[in-house]
Amino acid sequence: MIRTKFYRKVFELNGHPIIAKGLRSFAQSKVSKPFIGSFAKLYKLNMEEATRGLRDYGTLHDIFTRELKADARPVSDSPDAFVSPCDAYLSVVDDLTPESTFMVKGQDYTVEELLGSREKAAPYSGGKVLIFYLSPTDYHRVHVPIDATVEDVYTLGRHADPVNELGLTHGLRPLTRNYRLVSRFDVAGSPLAHVMVGALNVNSIVRTNMNDVVHRGDPYGYFSFGSTVVVCVPKGKFSFTREKGPVKMGEEIGKWHS
Q: Is 215 one of the catalytic residues?
C-alpha cells in the first residue's frame, strides 16, 4: 500500500511543487534504478511486449516511458476506423454544451477551459469528449487515432507563455491548471482536438511526431509524468463500435463519419 502511494506520487507529481520537483528528479536519476523491479512487479508490467528487458532500463522514468515491439499493438485497418490513441480506461461525455464539465487529473474542465478559448471550443458544441485515463500500469506513449492534417499545436498550463486571455478575463485559474499539449487536427475537413494532459504545473509531455500529415496509429508523443488524453469530436462525426472501459492503443473504438 505504501509503495503504491509512493509510485503514484512519483508518476502523477500531484503534490506540492517542491515535492513534485524532487520526485521528478528522483525518477529520472540512476538512484531510482533499484526500484524498477518492484515497480514492474507491483503493476504487473508485461515486459514481453517491451523492446528492452527489465535489466536494460536505467531509471524509473525509462521504464515508465518504455517503447513496445512493433507487433504488440496492432492498429485496426477497418474502413473509417477511429482507434484508441493509447492504453487507458475510456470515459465519455456526450452532447456537449458550454456548461458541460468533466474531470481530468482531479480538476473540472469545460471544453473552453481545456482548449483555451471560446472560439477554439465552438466547433465541438453538441459533440463528444473522449477521456482516456492512463494508470501506472499502462503503456504511456500516445498515438494518432485517425488520418489527419495537423493544423495547430500549442501548450497551456503554468509553463505555457503567455497566460491565455480566457483565464485572465474570466478567472479560470490559468496558473493552477495541468500542463497540456493541444493539437488541432483536420480530418477530411472537420476539426478534431487531441489533448495530452500532463502533471500539474509541470512540462511533462514530449511530442515526438512533427509531421504535418499524420496517420492512424502513428506515434505522436509520450508522457514523462502525469497522464490523461482527451479527444474532442464535433457533433455527428463519431459513433462508437465498442463499449467504454479498458482500451488498448490501436483498437477500433468507433467510426468517423465524413
A: no
Cell 494518432 locates to 144
Asked if 249 and 175 sit in the same domain, the reply is yes
Predicted local distance difference test score (pLDDT) of residue 55: 94
Residue 191 neighbours by CB distance under 10 Å? 20
- Per residue in 82-122, pLDDT (tens digit) is 999 999 999 999 999 988 988 887 778 899 989 999 999 99
- Domain of 25 in residue numbering reads as 2-64
Q: Identify whether 71 is a catalytic site residue.
A: no
- C-alpha cell belonging to residue 117: 478559448
Among 32, 87, 138, 224, the active-site one is: 87
CA 216 to centroid of chain Cα atoms: 16
CA distance 218 to 220: 6
Number of domains in the chain: 2
Active site annotation includes 227: yes
Of 205, 224, 250, the C-alpha closest to 69 is 250
Look up the pTM and report it: 0.88
Angle, in degrees to the nearest 10, between helices 2-12 and 17-27: 100
Catalytic residue among 61, 140, 143, 194: 143
